[in-house]
Write a structure and sequence with these properties.
The protein is an alpha+beta fold. The chain has a domain at about 245-420. The chain is built from six helices and 25 strands. The strands form seven sheets. Strands 11, 12, 13, 14, 19, 21, 22, 23 and 24 form a nine-stranded mixed beta sheet that branches. Strands 1-2-5-25-8 form a five-stranded antiparallel beta sheet. A three-stranded mixed beta sheet has the order 17-18-20, with no helix packed on it. A hairpin with a 2-residue loop joins β6 (about 125-130) and β7 (about 130-135). The relative contact order is 0.15.
């Protein structure tokens, strides 16, 4: 049977509406082919190569198609549409930085990589070889009702280099949008549309899930191009709204900010369990990564040891939320404030490069995006895993900078999802 892959041309320079029409047509054709092939996947290497080449031609190299495999003896391949992000320095993406070192998103296990690729869309799930594999595809309903560990597995099951988007990668994209593109992406944060847009069908995504007789989730990438991180058809869609997204490499231990170094979370083989030694704290005086003051004895430990050295950065449950070296206010549920208003001790540059804090407190450059933190000293909420973005009903409180640090490792919901990413390790 002859396979018809649409003919394409590079459409950069064409009117945005024309570019978007090409995007939707080509990516819809790919999803149609994916649905026809079903569990057999894309067996032909020539066909896979042609789809990839044409995606790159169409987008002028801004997008590509990578191929996950299910790890079987005879692998089955599925497509995932990705956005390419070339390496950038800290001074390129931070407004007030003169630091010429690379942003940490481009360093994995001490090796520098010239680019990473983020899922153009939130993760969809396909099952093959007895495991769920996360894919970035146009028009599908995103996979939801998954917790942190599920998200790591889902996006890492596609093979070497495939992984759950890391907080470092999310931060780079967010800073690029705000500081380079001077753009705050819209999204499905008001029951199928952006809260700032009129109630007109042109501003809605295509519904895929209804809740309480209202539009909840919409098909990935089906909203207007204003929902992409750069306002073009070739950006990452739905980072504002639709569903919350787990990110790897950022958590709280009894309020202490703990990260996985650089972009090491892009390696899907590393240990990110509760008691992993890879979790590091941030020393307040110089931003270096150090052994945490909050440590867990096992993966089941809910009563972590607190050293009390008071040298590392922690979130305090004050109003507004503050970053301190010694917690004075523990939360009983959570504390929240606009992301812009997070304040505290003199902060090292690493915190703004990872969008853990704003670059300048109170400068109102992050819209009305909110931060939510929980810093229990013990109990099931002593470990908190990070989510970013927002949901379909959060309104103007959501964007690319919300910091959701109030849920446990096992917390799942029909409004929680993930986003695949890729580094060529």
């Amino acid at each position: 049977m002859t396979v018809h892959i649409p003919e394409v041309k590079c459409v950069l320079g064409e009117p945005i509406a024309m570019q978007d029409a090409w995007r939707r047509a080509f990516e819809s054709a790919l999803v149609d082919r994916f649905n026809i092939l079903g569990s057999a996947g894309f067996e032909s290497a020539d066909e896979r190569a042609e789809w990839t080449a044409k995606m790159q031609i169409l987008s002028g190299g801004k997008n590509t198609i990578k191929w996950t495999d299910d790890g079987d003896t005879t692998p089955i391949y599925f497509p995932t549409i990705l956005v390419k992000f070339p390496a950038m320095r800290l001074c390129d993406v931070l407004q007030n930085s003169t630091n010429e070192n690379l942003h940490p998103a481009f360093i994995v296990d001490s090796t520098i990589y010239p680019e990473f690729y983020a899922g153009k869309y939130q993760a969809y799930s396909v099952t093959s070889n007895a495991k769920d594999i996360g894919l970035s595809l146009y028009g599908v309903d995103p996979k939801t009702s998954i917790d942190f560990d599920d998200s790591v597995s889902l996006c890492g099951n596609g093979g070497t280099g495939h992984h759950l988007i890391t907080n470092a990668e999310w931060a780079l994209i967010s800073l690029l949008a705000k500081n380079i593109n001077s753009y705050q992406p819209k999204g499905n944060n008001d029951y199928g549309k952006d809260s700032s847009d009129p109630d007109d069908l042109r501003y809605y995504g295509i519904p895929t899930y209804i809740s309480s007789d209202k539009i909840a989730r919409v098909g990935c990438g089906t909203g207007p191009v204003s929902w992409a991180h750069d306002g073009t058809p070739w950006g990452c869609f739905d980072m504002n709204g639709n569903v919350y997204e787990y990110v790897n490499g950022l958590r709280l231990g009894a309020g202490e900010i703990q990260i996985i170094a650089n972009n090491d979370g892009a390696d899907n083989s590393i240990d990110v369990s509760r008691d992993s030694a890879l979790w590091k704290a941030i020393k307040a005086s110089d931003g270096s990564l150090v052994t945490p003051e909050t440590t867990f004895a096992s993966d089941a430990d809910t009563d972590p040891a607190l050293s009390g050295a008071n040298e590392t950065l922690k979130y305090d449950g004050t109003s507004p939320v503050s970053v301190v070296t010694e917690v004075t206010t523990r939360t009983e549920s959570y504390a929240s404030s606009p992301f812009d208003d997070i304040t505290g001790v003199t902060l090292p540059e690493i915190t703004s490069s990872l969008c853990i804090t704003p670059e300048v407190s109170g400068n109102n450059e992050h819209g009305s995006n909110y931060a939510y933190i929980r810093n229990d000293a013990s109990g099931s909420y002593s470990e908190i895993l990070a989510r970013r973005g927002g949901t379909w009903n959060d309104g103007s409180d959501r964007g690319v900078f919300p910091l959701i640090l109030n849920g446990t490792r096992s917390h799942d919901s029909y409004s929680f999802g993930a986003r695949p990413a890729f580094v060529n390790l």
